[in-house]
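Standup notes
- HV: blocked on the assembly model, inputs below
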Amino acid sequence: QVQLVQSGAEVIKPGASVNVSCKSSGYTFINYYMHWVRQAPGQGLEWMGIINPNGGYTRNAQKFQGRVTMTRDTSRSTVYMELSSLRSDDTAVYYCARSRGTGAAAIDFWGQGTLVIVSS
Amino acid sequence: SFVLTQPPSVSVAPGKTARITCGGDNIGTKSVHWYQQKPGQAPLLVIYYDTNRPSGIPERFSGSNSGNAATLTINRVEAGDEADYYCQVWDTDSDHPGVVFGGGTKVTVL
């Protein structure tokens, strides 16, 4: 069965960076794009960007340009999201989630989420 | 960027019908997906490409999309349908194409 298993919760100091991993199994890794979506406490869903595991092409939401880096390791079927220059309002649950394609394709499966708390 | 507008909350009695709207400029020309999110859980896809149900989603869930609004309809509402619901499109209209989510609608079963 499809699984997206994310790394564990993190507490990070303001100004530092966080790296969240998302390991895929149960399907062909390179056949699905991977999104990163975050959700601040009590708030809605916010899209951060997308990576094509087949080649590594990425597209970020304008809000996160220059602060987010998405990479992948095809040998480990894992994607990574690094968010830098963290602020308190980056405190959120971060999800990886796959879609069959970019563009209009639906996100059909989500990871369990990784809580990132930014606090001194 | 493209803006999707959802009502913050909808209340419905068990067995009745809940309708959740998702407004956007000419949204009928875009493909709309809907997600259900229960407290402490990741979102779950319930409708894709306006009207399609993934495997395992009850037939009580249906979708439509026309003009400036898409609608998620839940027939014969059950207590287990209580959740937040989000609509989503791919925004091709801006200089930075990407995924856009509505603000979410909390469905309360009375």
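- HV (later): unblocked. The CA atoms of residues 30 and 49 of chain A lie 17 Å apart. The longest strand of chain A covers residues 18-25.
- Next: hand off to the docking folks.
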